[in-house]
Amino acid sequence: MKEGKFVHRFIPNSVEGIEREILELIGIKDTEEFFKSIPMEMRLKRRLNLPYFPSEFELQRYCESILNTNVSTKDIVCFLGAGIYDHYIPAVVKEIIKRAEFLTSYTPYQPEVSQGMLQALFEYQSMICELTGMEYANCSLYDGSTALAEACRMSIRVNGKKKIMVPKFINPERLQVLRTYIEPLEAKILTYNQRLEDGQVDLKDIEEKLDDETSCLYLEQPSYFGYLEENLEEISDIIHKRDALFIVSVDPISLGIFREPSSYGADIVVGEGQSLGLPMNYGGPLLGILAAKGDKLLRQMPGRIVGMTTTQDNQFIAFCNVLQTREQHIRRERATSNICTNEALMAVAAAVFLALLGPKGLKELAEVILAKTNYAIKRLSEIKGLKVPFFNSVHFKEFLINFEKDVYDVHRELLKRKIHGGKIVKEDFPELGDSSLFCVTEVIDKEKIDKLALTLEEVMRN
User: Fold this and answer.
1) For helices 446-461 and 407-416, what crossing angle results, to 10°?
2) Paired residues of 436 in beta bridges
3) pTM listed for this prediction
4) How many other C-beta atoms are found inside a 10 Å radius of the C-beta of residue 82?
5) In this predicted model, which residue has the larger pLDDT, 44 or 364?
């Protein structure tokens, strides 16, 4: 410390001589010039109230004391889903993505030194296509929300129309991202109705709202509330009669037992791939799935597509980027997206996860989740004061519970007993009343479901 100036051994420019040399080199008098665009009334006029400068050991112990206040799914029974899910991740998934050639790999611009990463991404694309029935998939996007937004922008570029139709019970976070992405295009978002009794799409409503200016219709299967739409072919026919595109969001694990989107006419498939071997990580990084079919959409795909070729002497199989529509390349202002370095490592993790399970393993996993979902619904529906499920439809992994009591009070009582009672949806969907979205995956066993049921019986009685 010199004349009130803090000197840090790991920050070179905190030393006066070095700082002066840097300032002279860039041609300014002092560091205040960096902040001159910030109004004085917006600036802090005192020193930061920081603790004394601790040793490394003391700092580590202090940070650990803060971290120890966190609560994880190992400490409580967690029924929270709504986009991020607690699935079991095989140890080999973590082990493989820790390898330096994957963990430290950057965008594979040079195929001659990136064959490992390129092949892993090619395998990811191939498995996504096999799951969805689509003809091609990109190397992944940031998350399910940006995948939806990019899909809608693709649709607008292809048919030139600027009306997007979304379901009434859409994931609200995805809707926020979609609005942000299409705002510069001056496109409109219209909401189509879903029946309150069973959540199914109101076919008459979409027939009336779909017109020649509609670019695409978006559907979530399963829905945000976990139930399955039944009238898929009818919806697809209505959409395509107006020359609009059908965008479907899927839970990739559900495709182990449910129909692939191509079988009912989907043009673009999107989804959140976090369930495929990625931890919850406080909400990220995630994995955006985007796949499509048809020549018109191919050139409008954002990001990259990896293809298989051969070496120049035709002796060996090789892999390279066959489509790169980013603005950093020759496309420039004609680029389809400004996506840059997305979390391709997450796509590698998903590829490892899917390869480990295979079609049979994925089917078994989906069957286990479906069975546990059904058991939870049956067990909880016996409790007085609950409506389970809220929607009278088939559910997968998630379902809505409506309470005769204040949902926030119920949630607090569950937390006191070390149970997380899902996501409260009252603010996003006031018409659903005191309701909360519960999630059941393969890590939730019968004992945990029974514990939830017994606890809710007690809470609803008192």
Assistant:
1) 120
2) 401, 424
3) 0.88
4) 21
5) 364
